[in-house]
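User: Fold this; tokens only.

Assistant: Input:
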Amino acid sequence: MANEKPKVVVKTFRDLLAWQRAMDLVVAVYAATKKFPKDETFGLVLQLRRAVVSVPSNLAEGFGRRSRTDYARFIQIALASLFEVQTQLEIARRLDFLTKEEFTRLNTLSREVEYLMSRLRQKMLASSAKIS
């Protein structure tokens, strides 16, 4: 019993670690894109910011859905947006808009969010299969 993890009670989407870390990623991406060239304001900056905002937004929206299957679908949408963010971060790195250190920090955070959302999606699908 000593190895048991305390059970976390999730009352709102704000209690989800995946949502919390996705919000951290939003803040980090916004800070990083402030340093991008001005001629990218309506290009990569806008696209990257829209994609990263969509990650915690879809987690929150999915949390409000009535079924676990529907919630899992919104987590998948959030994951797709996260993959878009990861690709755009790679583009920014290749264009030297991000230093190697900035890219590594953002990429590491995005991979953590990916892991948390993937696990959450698996749990939703597994528990919806048990209910049916």
